[in-house]
Design a protein that fits this description.
two-stranded antiparallel sheet; extended; four-stranded antiparallel beta sheet; alpha+beta
């Protein structure tokens, strides 16, 4: 079976074989890294978290307490199946992603509906928080989430009533736009874990 590369990278020190074709001089290494920079002009400007507060510089216990309160608020929305309030919570983040990824209005709406469907499903119950939770930072300390230290997944978990091995783990990442402001939701990640069935 012939194999063809998806792309060929040529650099000033690219090696060539007898047929004048580039070859890979790094064969045999377990992996390699490719690093490059590109400059692209885009027709939009987003702030995202670029000017957010470095949360690592804040009192960790106070930050964890504030995060816990935000998570408690989200759990209440999920428990009450309050789709309008949950949509309002994630709307700014979805608008930003829609701009950056050039989503159509239909794509943006489908993303929100998919998340609401999972969260508001009657088949799932909210599991108790893990015994411990730890802060996990991203973006040089400008984003933070709470995770279970055992598996580093989000601390809000939805468990399928019919199959307890079917778990949806939700991770909410927050940032603080300016000192003194409350934490704002920046990103929601969900991971579905399907247990192995006998």
């Amino acid at each position: 079976e012939d194999k063809y590369p998806m792309f060929t990278i040529e650099t000033s020190d690219t090696k060539y074989d007898a047929n004048d074709k580039p070859y890979n001089p790094i064969v045999g290494f377990p992996y390699f890294e490719l690093q490059t920079e590109i400059e692209v002009e885009v027709p939009y400007e987003v702030e995202g978290w670029s000017h957010s507060v470095n949360l690592k510089e804040q009192n960790e216990e106070e930050l964890k307490k504030e995060m816990q309160q935000r998570y408690d608020d989200i759990r209440q929305l999920i428990a009450k199946k309050d789709t309008a309030a949950f949509r309002q919570l994630i709307q700014e983040r979805e608008d930003l992603l829609g701009t950056v990824y050039y989503y159509s209005e239909a794509e943006k709406e489908n993303r929100i509906k998919d998340l609401l469907t999972v969260i508001m499903s009657e088949e799932f119950d909210i599991a108790p928080y893990p015994q411990e939770a730890q802060l996990l930072y991203f973006a040089e300390g400008k984003m933070v989430t709470l995770v279970d230290p055992v598996n580093r997944e989000g601390v809000i978990r939805l468990v399928n009533r019919k199959d307890p091995k079917d778990i949806v783990s939700l991770e909410f990442r927050f940032h603080r736009k300016k000192p003194g402001q409350k934490l704002a939701l920046f990103k929601v990640k969900n991971r579905v874990n399907y247990g192995i069935h006998d």
